[in-house]
Design brief:
It contains 16 helices and 15 strands. The protein is an alpha+beta fold and 776 residues long. A hairpin with a 4-residue loop joins strand 2 and strand 3. The longest helix is centred in the last third of the chain and has 69 residues. It starts with a helix and ends in a 29-residue tail after the last strand.
Amino acid sequence: MRCKPLWGLLALSVVLLGGCKQRCFMTEQDFQRTTTTSLQYLEEKPDLGAQPLTELVPAPPTLTNLDRKVRFISLAECIAIALEQGRVGQPSLLFPGQSLDNLVQFTGRGISGSDAIRVFALQPALQGAEIEGALSKFDAILSTSLNWVNTDQPISNPIAAIQAGGLPAISQQQANASAALIKPLASGGVTGITFNVPYLYTNLPNRLNPAYTPSLQFSFEQPLLQGFGVEINQIRAAHPGSVLNPGVFQTQTTTEGVLISRIRFDQSRADFERVLNQMLLNVETAYWNLYGSYWTLYSREQGLRFAYETYKKLKSEFEAGRSSIADFAQVRGQYEQFRAQRLQAIDTVLENERQLRNLMGMPIEDGYRLMPSDSPTLAPYQPDFTAGLKEALEKRPELHMIRQEIKAAQMQVLLAKNQLLPDLRFTASYDVNALGSRLDGGDQTQTFGPDGQPTGLKQVNAFRNLAQDNFNSWNLGLRMTMPLGFRFGHTQLRQAQLRLATAIETLKEQELKVQSYLANFYRRLSLNYETIIANRAQREAFGEQLQARFQEVSAGRKTVDILLEAQRFWADALNSEYQSIVQYNNALVGWEFAKGTIQHHNNIHIAEGPLPTCTAIRAVDHERQRTAALVLRERATPPAALPLPDKVLGSQDGKVPSLPAVLAAVPPLQDVPPLPTPTDAMRMPTLPKLVEAKLEPVVPNTPAPAPTPGPTPMPALPTPTLTPPAGSVSVQSNSSKPLEAFTPTVSQPSSSPPRKAGGKPPRRPGEFGSERLPLP
């Protein structure tokens, strides 16, 4: 029983020491996706780039294939996705919101041209490695060597015969073991310790055999003029080196010095901020462009609805003999015009969605149709230009890069001036020497000959003799090298001064550009806001005109061409109103971009290093959940307040409805067929011949069914919905009141969608595309 608490304590200790094995900030799959840039063992994968790294996607949607589910997406979610895997897009500030379709190109030493945000995120890391490379010139250097030499020299001269003492040849075995530790100093000097152990064995008499002569040398060298000081050696690309150890510092060279390498790192980080700001500008602009394209489609469909109601009315009047063929053909032509404009609007929606997907790094097709769920801003905004200009001059990363370039140019001038000084160096060395017959053993033993003279040493420990420090030598010296005239040094100084002047002039020119670009958006903010007011008033006026013209035409007081003109005016005014709203929101984004505060505006911060420990949830997942909550809240909005905001702009209720709310009230049209070919009774009579010229009929003579008495109403348009949780939204048509023909009503959904006899099931609600409607 006593062991149980001990076992429990032991188990708890093991758990605490082992730690948590599961990553708590993201799933394993997401973690692997975010660490694809790991550099471990990539060189051992020969097939790394042989196969595509992305999956194949199905064919993208076209005008004949528009069946996709709707995915409501917020601006914050688009930005979160783009930060993970997006692309920068069009670098020109004149065309924001456009993706870049150009692929990479070969530069002669590699490839360039990728605009992926993950590629740009690696550039500061490359420059950061240059800092370590610049600091490496101050690292200590260890140099070792071990050599063996065997010499067998025959006697060829009297001197060699005297040395040999009657021997037929001189035989020697030599070896040398050396180790040197050299430390470059930040002041430009060099200090080092060198340890040598030479070995000699010979057959010559009267020699210590074998002989070890170890030595320990302390050396120091310091430049006194050129290359002297800590500051200049932090700017120099290479260390001044040493004349005592030539060749050691030949490989210790870098592109630039430590301080300049740090400046390049700051510039690289600022350049990453620049492309990140550019990506945010393009993503947000593309988001509102997609929003505006949906409203363009909405305006064309509303005009198409009005044109169809007018067509039904004129068709019945023409068949009853109360309308001319010209009026009837004009109505039919306007219907076809709105139908063509609707097809062009759908293509614009698909293109703007492609641009947004490309900027977010999403596949071109994933089974969903992206639809913005955020409402644009209509609040008036009058910024302080002076305060905005101060922020722009302080926070624009482009200006920060130029200011750092000025610092680097100043350091280059200081370096060039230092190169004009003579290379004067002070050198000093101190040696400890020794001699012995072996490297281990007892004390020294002296031997003497018959005449009382010493004949040699026996059992002499060379290392012990070295430790006794009995034999020393030292050296002091000055050495100077100076080119006569310093022509090359003056050339470098002049070039450095010109580069500094160029950087200063560049900063002035870029600051003027920042002022001009900021003034552009400052002007556009007020212009676009006033344009919204004018376009909204225009749309309201044309709406009243359209209703009045319809009543006048119904009473027979006006011709139908006035009604058709009013329909075009109203549809164009509706499109212009929401295009001006898009331009106003894009101007707000451009203002933040011009100030350099677009990251702060979107709550984005750049952090260096790996992901923070135990991050709660990824930003894209958080924004996706938030978007879903917003969509559910918008679907519960009462339909009576959804159609179009006719309130005065700037009032408390003058808000722009979101796309989910508008489409819930007025669902988009599905496939719109052309109008039927007129029958023979509805055709224009043949004109008489004029000078042997026969005019062709306006409409080709094609067989058509016989006319039926009375108007033939077109079947009611399909009723796509956005699948709200409690009900669906349907559309009812009334041929006598075109302006009120599309009043939204709420109906309960059926248990299952109806299926035509012998046909295909209807399309899913809320989607583009459906089966073609039968012609009347």
